[in-house]
Amino acid sequence: MKKYLSLLLILFSALPAFTQTTRDSLLNAVAGYTQLVYRAADTFLNTRFPQAVRLEAIGKYSLVYDPEQVAGFKRAVIAENEPPEIRAMALNKIYQYAENDEQLLAQVLQWLGNSRTPKPLRNETLDLVHALSFTSLPGKLEVYDKILTDPDARYRLFAASKLMANGDQRTQQLLVSVLEDSATALFTPLQAIALLSLAPKKEFYPAVYKILQQAGNEDTRLAALETLGAYTPAREKIISISRDPNEKEIFREAALMALYSGDKENIVGYVSPILNDKTASSRLQILCIQMTIDQRRSMAYRRSKKARRADEYDLLVKSFADGSTVNNDEALKKIAEKYLLLVKPALPQ
Asked: Could you give the dihedral angle defined by the CA atoms of residues 205, 210, 215 and 220, in that order, rounded to the nearest 10 degrees?
């Protein structure tokens, strides 16, 4: 807590607008809060109190400050005679200390990898490792391989996400096999696609493309569509989905977004047929124009020769702004006006 008080003192000394009374009041408030935490932690560590009282006392505070109490919380975490709920709560309040305690951290990883660990405690270890995986525990840990096939789906998904982010080939093959045959899989095809998208190398694209081509679960097909924007062999299929009036709107929108993410420079060519389609919805056409605003406002486009005079697409958008098209939707008219205002094409007088 000393470092927090020091920081406050430095901050307040740098702000002359604060009166001495204001500074004292704020410091007193901080000190008062730490006293509340101290008393709550003291109640939690007192084994003479009922479990419910102990949990309620410390539950609303995010961490403990006193070094002796921190040590007490660590002892509570590893105390086998304590209820799992108490051990889990104790661990929850010392996250910031656990990352620098090699012995405690090793024990946490052991509990995480053991499906027989009491559920409340094991769940807390998962949350702790998840939090630390972004800071002090980056990369691939051995425990991820252990829980990749865990009976609990939450643990499997966590392990797979971390392994895929680190380019683990074994996990990638496992997930691709799910797309090829999901009958007895540890993951659903929808989960497999989401996890595969985390891979640094996109070697899984052909397997996901097969899912897109097959009529099946809509959520899975949608996930496949959203993933394949950068996969050139799927480009024509995605284009056809974006323009197909028989496709649900959500699929046409996802197809447009995939095209935008994978081939932004050519987005005008992809959306022009939809703007010329009198049966296309206003929502879809608004999305088309918005994407081209983003592309044509870019410095690369503004510096190109193409930006020096209006082209057919600029004139097409102008027709929506003028209200000279079949679709006179007000929101569509406004987005067209926004395009002309922001892109500033050199329209003929």
From this structure: -30
> Is the CB of residue 262 less than 8 Å from the CB of residue 229?
yes
- Residue ending a domain, among 105, 137, 169, is 137
The closest of 89, 84, 53 to 72, measured between CA atoms, is 89
Domain membership of residue 325 as a residue range: 267-349
Whether the CB-CB separation of 182 and 189 falls below 8 Å is answered with yes
Residue with tokens 């204001």: 22
In a domain, 334, yes or no: yes
* Separation of CA 271 from chain center: 28
Residue 224 is assigned to a structural domain of this protein: no
Angle, CA 96 vertex, CA 95 and CA 101 arms, to 5°:
85
Q: Which region among 1-5, 41-45, 256-260 has the lowest average model confidence (pLDDT)?
A: 1-5
Find how far residue 343's CA is from the centre of its chain: 32
- For residue 249, pLDDT over 60 is answered with yes
Q: Is the pLDDT of residue 2 over 50?
A: no
pTM of the model: 0.79
> Is the alpha carbon torsion for 236, 238, 239, 244 positive or negative?
positive
Q: Which residue, 118, 137, 156, sits at the end of a domain?
A: 137
C-alpha of 301 from chain center: 31
First-to-last alpha carbon distance for the chain, in angstroms, is: 69
CB 293 within 8 A of CB 338: yes
Q: Which residues contact 272 (CB under 8 A, 6 or more apart)?
A: 312, 313, 316
| H/E run at residue 260 | helix 249-262
Task: Determine the 3-state secondary structure of 202 from DSSP.
Answer: coil
Q: Distance between CA 174 and CA 144 in Å, rounded?
A: 14
Work out the number of other CB atoms within 10 angstroms of the CB of residue 328: 11
State how far Cα 329 lies from the chain centre: 34
Work out how many domains the chain is built from and give that number: 2
Question: How many residues are given for the chain?
Answer: 349
**Closest residue by Cα to residue 70 from 54, 92, 55:** 92
